[in-house]
Amino acid sequence: MRVIVAEDSVLLRQGIVRLLVDEGFEVPAACGEAGPLLLGLVAEHRPDAVLLDIRMPPTHTDEGLVAAAQVRAAYPGTGVLLLSQYIETTGTVRALADNPRGFGYLLKERVADIGELAGALKRVAAGETVVDPLVVDRLLHTPRTAGPLDELTAREREVLGLMAEGRSNEAIARQLVIGGKTVETHVRNVFTKLGLAADLLDHRRVVAVLTYLRA
Amino acid sequence: MSVPGVLAPYARTRAWPTVWRVDRQGKRAPSLRWGAAAAAAVASGAAGSWAYAQAGGSGADIARDLAVGWAYAGAGLVAWWRRPGNRTGLLMVAEGVTWFLGNLQGTSVPALFAVGAWWEALNMAVLVHLVLAFPEGRVASAFARRLVVFSYGLVAVGGLLRTLAFDPGISTDATYLACHGCGPNPLLVPGAAHLFDAVDAGYRAIGWAITLVMLAAIVRRWRHASVARRRALLPAWIAVAIATSFLLWDLIHYALPALSGPAESVVLLLSDLAQAAVPLAFLAGLLRMQLQRAEVGGLVIEVGADPDPGRLREALARVLGDPGLRLGLWQEEQGRYADAESLPVRATGSGSTRVDSSRGTPLALLVHDPVLAEDPELLQAVGAALRLALENLWLRNRAKEVTSRIVQAAEAERGRLERDLHDGAQARLVFALMSLRRVDQGLVGHPDLSLRRSVAEVESSLKLALEELRGIAHGIHPAVLTREGLGPALAALAQQAALPVVVAADPRRYDPVVESTAYFTVCEALANAAKHARARAVSVSARHSEGTLVVETVDDGIGGADSGRGSGLRGLADRIAAVDGVLHVHSPAGGGTRIRAELPCG
């Protein structure tokens, strides 16, 4: 699997590339900016996924987000995994809602866990959606006045959280060590209690859940 | 007495600019000259009244006469006392003293009769002097000076010639006195009495001519005068009108005695009453400028509130009574004074006053009616008020400028610090974590299990450090605020809050400093709501209204927050004031807390 890395810290960039190579990824190119250079590299190498930091030179604000949108518009088949120093729900969730397919958002320090990073890259490359567990955690634990979330059982909340992270039913079943049918029941219950359309799948389901949690 | 002799005392007053001197105890005491003038006025009045009585004047006549003379002397003494630098007071006293000279013709003492007959019209010459010298106290033009000298000369020479031919026994109606048994006249030249009518007619005619010339001179001055000067000249006008009417009556009386006979007493009364009012009018005109100084205090209050150059000029014009006043404020870059329309303002001789700052640098230039230079104290007071207002304005602008620079610098510094943490420390920590993971991989299957445990401990330590670092960096300057603005930043804040927070924010961007101030205002308000107010829910709104960002945080807690006590709220007030904003804290006990910040945002 081919991945292009865009990270402005040389140290981190080299560290990430080495980790990915060790893990069996092919990294045809890596760069320290999110502008035309990155787009050129993507055009040249046509990677399966691009791993990039949200904050990139020159302004260190939203260069990564802009580049992500450009890459995904030009190469819909290329997955994009964004790294962020902070758990930000607004801008990233909005970006997700615009085009959730093959898009992921992870907290920066997750790169240290190669298993997690590799899994996320593979999922975005496959068109799935990845949302950092901390983002979901924050959304789930935003203090709010009484509402339908209170009616969920502990297990249903767990399932809701994994759905928000972009996990499929099978992944949820694996994670919670329960049967596929049970997961389907939990998912259906959650959707009913929250008043969401029950037939949503993959990234559309993620967006619906995140949108619900943000409201 | 020669004419220079008459003028000499005025010339000498130059050496004594103040009538009041300060003695060792620091008390003000009238000068000898002032006292002597007062005594002369009293003595002259007494002598005049005695002489009037000798000529058979009634009590009413004497009282009327005394009233006019002493009105001049009294008003003159007051004017002299209040405006020591101005010779108008002295001239008025002189008018009051000479007023009574003609009465001396009523006595049977030959020497006194001679003095009275000779100097009867001296007060008219003094009046000419007074009118032409008013309000500055000195005769400005060479022509007017010649006219004054000529008037005194006419009285000295013409009066003498007339007296030489004046036989009171023959010309019984030559004076305003019912002269029975006046004289004799020791100066009468034997055989000259038949010339009296001709000399008298010539004397009066020349007096008339002088009056007309003076009238013309004053009309000319009036036409060229500003409003301020016209106001000051008004008493002189009244004096001229009365003197003219008096002379007119005199002419009628002289030419057609039969016609004026029945109305004589009425005209005389009115004339005298009006005459008595003249010195008061002079005094009022003279002191009016002093009253203006009292208005300067009001000026300070008025311009202190809003020192806008246009309004400043208007206020100054009003206080100085000079609508044509121009105010030039010093423009450092151009090195000149400019008015509210940016037109250059230049100094013009006596008609301009420079106002410098307390450090000696130029502040402003007032170009005003030259007549105002006559009242240096008023100009000084106005200058002081102007200096106060402008320095106040300068300091305020400077304070605002400096505060704004400091706030911006602090804001930029926070942003830089946050980025440094992100680019430096955080990247290194993540890298360390990555390396540690490799170490951990390498230790798989290692016989010493404690090694892997240590690695796990270091890893959790590193993760904690990363988390703390994230919190610190976010607290210093939230990246979302820079990237997405106030609304999303407040929404993010609401998610992390310890209690339910509803956010309603207009989706728009503001100046970074304004956004940051608004953000930290809400942070502080939320902290207060969570920690002290025991609130159950908070609503936050950020709305833009007419150039102002209004950020309001309302909770349903116990209230009682005091911006004066809590250091958090006080710091907040300072922070908001630094961007020219206003903080309102409404927190009645038991009634929740409403924290409202109004931030100007262009």
From TrEMBL, chain B:
Keyword tags: ATP-binding, Kinase, Membrane, Nucleotide-binding, Phosphoprotein, Transferase, Transmembrane, Transmembrane helix, Two-component regulatory system
Entry superkingdom: Bacteria
InterPro entries: HATPase_C_sf, HATPase_dom, Sensor_HK_TwoCompSys, Sig_transdc_His_kin_sub3_dim/P
Domain Histidine kinase/HSP90-like ATPase: 521-600
PANTHER family tied to this protein: NITRATE/NITRITE SENSOR PROTEIN NARX-RELATED, NITRATE_NITRITE SENSOR PROTEIN NARQ
GO MF entries: ATP binding; phosphorelay sensor kinase activity; protein dimerization activity
SUPFAM superfamilies: ATPase domain of HSP90 chaperone/DNA topoisomerase II/histidine kinase
Coiled-coil intervals: none
The Signal transduction histidine kinase subgroup 3 dimerisation and phosphoacceptor domain, residue ranges: 413-481
Entry GO CC: membrane
Catalytic activities: ATP + protein L-histidine = ADP + protein N-phospho-L-histidine
Protein's name in the database: histidine kinase
Transmembrane intervals: 31-50, 62-81, 111-135, 147-166, 201-220, 232-254, 266-287
EC number(s) reported in the record: 2.7.13.3
